[in-house]
Design brief:
This protein is α+β, with helices and mostly antiparallel strands. The longest helix has 16 residues. The protein is globular and about 35 Å long.
Length: 95
Amino acid sequence: MSDHIVTREHGATKGRFVIRREGEEAELTYSVTTPTLIIADHTGVPDSFRGTGAGLALVQALVDAARKDGFKVVALCPFVKAQAQKHPDWADVFV
């Protein structure tokens, strides 16, 4: 697994976590429902990122931000939901 630099772009109603490499982006998008609740709605990882752990790094960044900023996450995205189930230590973040 490679080291990934994940950045967060956060707006009033939407945001995303993104990894950029060689002109391509892997992203996890979310919608803000309230200041304390977001919906993780999509994770997109280009083929060139597959097998690098980029998807997991995006979800880890989401979990870290939720803990730091005090919000909960509804995992609408199937990938985020699957990762939440694989990591019971993240249960404090997901509703």
